[in-house]
Amino acid sequence: MKKKLIIFFLGCTIMGYAQKKNTKNAVKIKPKSEFVAELMSKMTLDEKIGQLNLPTSGDITTGQANSSDVAKNIAEGKVGGLFNIKSVQKIKEVQKIAVEKSRLKIPLLFGMDVIHGYETTFPIPLGLSCTWDMKLIERSAQIAAQEASADGINWTFSPMVDISRDPRWGRISEGSGEDPYLGSQIAKAMVNGYQQHDLSKNNSILACVKHFALYGAPEAGRDYNTVDMSHIRMFNDYFPPYKAAVDAGVGSVMASFNEVDGIPATGSKWLMTDVLRKQWGFKGFVVTDYTGIPEMIDHGMGDLQQVSALALNAGVEMDMVGEGFLGTLKKSLDEGKVKIETIDNAVKLILEAKYDLGLFHDPYKYCDPKRAKTEIFTTASRKEAREIAAQSLVLLKNQNQVLPLKKSGTIALIGPLADARNNMSGTWSVATVGEKCISLLQGIQDVGGKSVKVLYAKGSNLDYDETFETNATMFGKTLNRDPRPKEELITEALKVAEQSDVIVAALGESAEMSGESSSRTNLEIPQAQKDLLNALLKTGKPVVLVLFDGRPLVLNDENATVPAILNVWFAGSEAGHAIADVLFGDVNPSGKLTTTFPRSVGQVPIYYAHKNTGRPLSNTEGKFEKFRSNYIDERNEPLFPFGFGLSYTTFDYSNLKISADKMNFSGKLKVTVDVTNTGNFDGKETVQLYIRDLVGSVTRPVRELKGFQKITLKKGEKQTVSFEITVEDLKFYNSDLQFVAEPGQFDVFVGGNSAADKKVSFELTK
């Protein structure tokens, strides 16, 4: 009887306390460590293992949660959380089962892939990174958390911080590019935006950094494939953004699908325990990716019981979908293959996360229907999404100042992406309502106004291959394939073009041509669209290529023939308006590439911070030299370098100075440069600082980004930009994996992209 009373009191405590100070009938509960320890003392082994289980619910229909397949397990305490269930009504109904029908009334976590916004959708992460604006990036995550939390979600599987230098890999679209320094700044901004330094707030949600680790470097660029690299490369080039997220206090980490050092990451104790916990001090919990545990069977790591024990012993706390923990841990415990202490530690970490989120104080904290009605897809959020999207667009070419367009005359808008509102959000936009997105056609009409006549023709399908197009337009993102012959489509487009003053060609990838399991071997625009573009160019009319993509593309032909190219990625809910704002010059483009654009897929992987060889080219013209490190059929350098992006105005860099030519380990150096807006428009410029360590105990990159500032300059204005260099900027992991700076000579480069040629030098002394 006494035991039953204790359990009843515990359940009442969980239900009765509300997190917010102004909530009536608030009941105070014990401090976290004491509360969690007391709760765990009441749990059976089955209930403990249940907390480690993260199934997907599917889309439970309101009013039917109790009859769903997962309801029975929740009531029996065999579920720790659910994901991809949406709406306050549905989530509250399921949470009610956990806190009213399970024995210990432990609330559930509710997760979702809130990757680049919720219903208000921002540019895909690769596009968002091209703003180089940490305040905007953090704000996008904050708005996403506001909306998701208003709809019942308390956990997002974001940010994805995987460094990728291979555009064949589809999920390059979901990350922040190729650079560890910039990637680290973005990782911190995203974590801070989601969690807001205070998970007790009802509009903050638990972040989950992914995919740990090295997911962005699969062999052949093929998703889920093997990753094999040295530890020195891991620590210097790929690990920093994960560590930055941990340092920012991220609450959870997701294991990656790939293997590392011959062991799938989900089963790697070196990754999950030695590096993540012991070296970096991570205090949260680790969750697998979707079916990550059973997938280790195909990797050749054993049967379900073996791989489940392997994951738990490695340091994984929660099993997403695989149900290997649920079905095998009890047996493994009996057989001595896992320890109860390991299970207990995993349970403790998950319960602590729920406590931090305030779910024990108020399990319905995120289930306020008033918030759901007033805080999702608001006019204010859409306005910010439009402004942020406009900052992400990258002007790659603008010959003879074709752009900005005039708000008069006739525009021919042609291409399969021109009127495709359901593709504007890009990949991994699971909460987006595609019908509410703004197409480019609508955007140009709205921004151009009544003085602009807009004529539209599709011009071509996405690709000549219907099967390819089907695979590239999944999840409701069809482009409504036109069955007419290609000649008829082009002829129709040319008739429209003949009536215009300027042609805007909306071409490139569809939303699902990049993203998970969308690797490509051909990085060019599909041939059907290239044929359309060539036909449009033959009209002699000025052509603006509005390029949609989720990865760097090979654009040699387009760069050689098209007067203006605006890379727009997939810019989110307000894509059409944001693109039109830039096309018409209401916003001066200021985006800068965070990935290198190759000349050929044969150059891949390609990135700016490469190492020198012992036989570098001796010429700067890209001419072939026998017995030198180059190609017989292509130049070494990319088409567009990391950090590149044009503006409607021009910027001049001058008077680069450094405060001293020597610095000791406790000293600081000041680097200054004058930046002048020498063009005819007000504009923004991202001033970038790179450092080269000329001599090291291990080989060092030709240059590394170590600072950047995005500044605004009016026409004719000059500003002196200052950077500070300390010994921390010079540190790297040596061959013993010690994080050190070494005395010697350093070059400093400052400019508008990674090919900056203005240089000063200094010496680091002991």
TrEMBL record:
Class of the enzyme per the UniProt entry, highest EC level: hydrolase
Family matches, as InterPro entries: Cellulose_Degrad_GH3, Fn3-like, GH, Glyco_hydro_3_AS, Glyco_hydro_3_C, Glyco_hydro_3_C_sf, Glyco_hydro_3_N, Glyco_hydro_3_N_sf
Catalytic activity line of the entry: Hydrolysis of terminal, non-reducing beta-D-glucosyl residues with release of beta-D-glucose
Key words of the record: Glycosidase, Hydrolase, Signal
Domain Fibronectin type III-like residues, every copy: 685-754
Record keyword Signal present: yes
MF (Gene Ontology): beta-glucosidase activity
Matches recorded under Pfam families: Fn3-like, Glyco_hydro_3, Glyco_hydro_3_C
Superkingdom assignment: Bacteria
Enzyme Commission number(s) of this protein: 3.2.1.21
Family as reported in the entry's similarity comment: Belongs to the glycosyl hydrolase 3 family.
Protein name per its UniProtKB record: beta-glucosidase
Organism: Flavobacterium gyeonganense
